[in-house]
Amino acid sequence: MSTQYQALLAEHASLASFTPWVSRSALPALATQCLVAAFVLTFYFSTLRDQLAKEVGVAALASVAGGFGLVFAFCLVGANV
């Protein structure tokens, strides 16, 4: 083996293992809360009329909540994204 490869192996062995930002035990609650928030905001969005700024804001929040909720749900079942 080359010396560069040996150095790379030594560096790899010395690094700390990966630790996720969000604990695995917190994923069910986070997924549920985000998805419920997305559904509630989507319903609220459907009731707004003639208020473009508020519609865009509520739609953006619903989209972000739904996106994070799906990512948390995927990570919960083992499809780490």
Structural account:
This protein is an all-alpha fold. The protein has one domain. The protein has three helices and no strands. The protein has helices spanning 3-14, 27-47, 52-76. It is elongated, with a radius of gyration of 21 Å. The mean pLDDT is 91.
Summarize this entry quickly.
With about 80 residues, the chain is mainly alpha-helical. It has three helices and no strands. The protein has one domain.
Oligomer: single chain
Question: Structural class, judged by helices and strands?
Answer: mainly alpha
Helices and strands, in order, run as HHH
Residue stretches low in confidence (pLDDT < 50, at least 5 long) are none
Tell me the count of domains.
1
Number of strands: 0
Name the overall outline.
elongated
Strand residue content: under 5%
User: What is the rounded distance between the termini?
Assistant: 34 Å
Main β-sheet description: none
Mean pLDDT, all residues: 91
Helix content: over 70%
Count up the helices: 3
Provide the descriptors you would attach to this structure in a database record.
81 residues; mainly alpha; elongated
Topology, please?
Blueprint: H1 3-14, H2 27-47, H3 52-76
